[in-house]
Design a protein that fits this description.
328 residues; mainly alpha
Length: 328
């Protein structure tokens, strides 16, 4: 196995961060026009300005290391961001889907910069660590602003159709949640196999068991409401509607390391958190207390899983360095 120095691995991580910023810009420059809710629109516009600064700061750190951004990764990021906006534009509940996707993406960036900061500190690059901590803080603040819009974006999504269609809309959100849990099973099974460290693998395994329970609970709700049980053909495209495929495509273009896997899993937990927040709001609007209670219960599991992954990022950094044979 070819080895890398810490310096070389740091450059790889900076290039990954730059590609994420390019993808973010491709979304943020277009997203306000389809936001459909004023607070969401303002948050996206403000963060677009911040993201331009983030891109410049990361590019400057690459320059300091005598390196350039990866053109292929940047192009993939730009294409992925533009593709999501085109898709979201035609959705009947674009405000909620957009807020949920953006919330997940902020957490992908947050975890990426947390990993970058820790790697920079190990490599003795104080300037890059400071930049990473600054950007991480701004991504976290944006995520909080997005979370604060969930009730309003769910209401805005419902307002796009007749209020008497609330029950039908709730079924769509249940299908979305079911599809996300199906995708979570696939991700977590992969993560258990290649987690890179026993602590990470145990965390993935525990949440995989929870995810099977979530699927069973959702299937019971779906069966109660309209008699469908295990009818996956009507659910298979729902993950795309939630934006999961967009992030997955970007992740698959990157090398599998324990750190990147942990960052993606952390982001996916927040995609589910956003989805269940929206589901709970729609369930309240439809007057379905059982769905609302189930969504709240599953939300607790998803938030706990996300906190566990964040606590294990040091372990993920060490496992990533071992996986690529990085040496000081």
């Amino acid at each position: 196995m070819a080895t890398r120095t810490l310096e070389e691995q740091l450059v790889v991580s900076l290039r990954d961060a730059h590609a994420l910023e390019q993808m973010a810009l491709a979304q943020l420059e277009r997203a306000p026009s389809i936001a459909g809710e004023e607070a969401l629109k303002l948050a996206l516009r403000d963060h677009c300005v911040e993201t331009r600064v983030h891109e410049r700061l990361v590019r400057e750190r690459l320059d300091a290391h005598g390196a350039k951004p990866s053109m292929l990764r940047d192009l993939a990021g730009e294409a992925g961001g533009a593709g999501f906006i085109l898709f979201a534009r035609v959705q009947p509940d674009a405000p909620g889907k957009l807020a949920t996707h953006a919330y997940s993406y902020e957490h992908l960036e947050l975890a990426t910069y947390e990993l970058l900061a820790r790697l920079a500190e190990m490599a003795g690059d104080h300037e890059t660590a400071v930049v990473a901590h600054r950007i991480r803080g701004e991504e976290a603040a944006m995520a909080a602003r997005l979370e604060a819009t969930f009730a309003r974006t769910a209401a805005a999504s419902l307002d796009t159709g007749p209020r008497d269609e609330a029950d039908e809309r709730l079924m769509t959100y249940l299908d979305d949640a079911h599809a996300l849990e199906q995708q979570a099973v696939t991700l977590l099974e992969r993560a258990v196999a290649i987690g890179g460290d026993p602590q990470l693998e145990d965390a993935y395994h525990i949440h995989l068991e929870e995810t099977h329970d979530h699927l069973a609970a959702l299937e019971q709700l779906i069966a109660r409401r309209d008699g469908r049980v295990g009818e996956v053909q009507v659910l298979k495209d729902a993950a795309l509607r939630m934006g999961a495929r967009n992030i997955s495509t970007f992740f698959r273009a990157q090398a599998d390391t324990p750190g990147k896997l942990a960052a993606f899993a952390y982001a996916f937990e927040h995609l589910e958190i956003g989805g269940y927040e929206q589901l709970r709001e729609v369930a309240h609007a439809a007057g379905d207390a059982e769905v609302a209670e189930t969504a709240a219960r599953i939300l607790g599991d998803e938030r706990a899983a996300a906190e566990t992954l964040m606590a294990l990022l040091d372990v993920a950094v060490d496992a990533s360095l071992e996986a690529v044979g990085a040496v000081g």
